[in-house]
């Protein structure tokens, strides 16, 4: 992780986009990210859209926001070497891929860090858990996490954060985008002062 190059100001806010399981957190997040990209925001991290087979959610892909590359993160189909969590089998290659996407933070190319999604497995130290710990212990750019409503308490307690929580059932994408853009402007301004 290249945290030495992150702007040495106070850590920026962590926005949490929350909602129920399968309510549309990733879709909501993607709409926000599209609006931020249109404003020239440079982002790192990943989104993890789900996919369905025979009308049932059967897995998730992981897409690197900086490069556009993707991997299959997990599926309900067992695979040798996969790490099982609940009914999903997580591919080690994809876990490594996701951790790299969130740990290589560079102040000249990162306005926003995105993690879709943070949950109970991360709280237990699996998946992105170790990387999240490293991130919150250092100065970081503004971040957006998606977290199921049921896991808000354990996530905020685990990392001792005071996030800006936005529930997809009670706020618009435009409102959240505007808030985040304000924090990104502050972050960029601090970067220019250090140049």
TrEMBL record:
Gene3D superfamilies for this protein: P-loop containing nucleotide triphosphate hydrolases
Name of the protein in question: Nucleotide kinase
Coiled-coil features, chain-numbered ranges: none
Source organism per UniProt: Methanospirillum lacunae
Lineage, top ranks: Archaea, Methanobacteriati, Methanobacteriota, Stenosarchaea group, Methanomicrobia
Any one Pfam family match given in the protein's UniProt record, by short name: NTPase_1
SUPFAM superfamilies per the UniProt record, alphabetical: P-loop containing nucleoside triphosphate hydrolases (SSF52540)
InterPro entries hit by this protein: Nuc-triphosphatase_THEP1, P-loop_NTPase
Record flagged with keyword ATP-binding: yes
Keywords: ATP-binding, Hydrolase, Kinase, Nucleotide-binding, Transferase
GO molecular function, one term: ATP binding
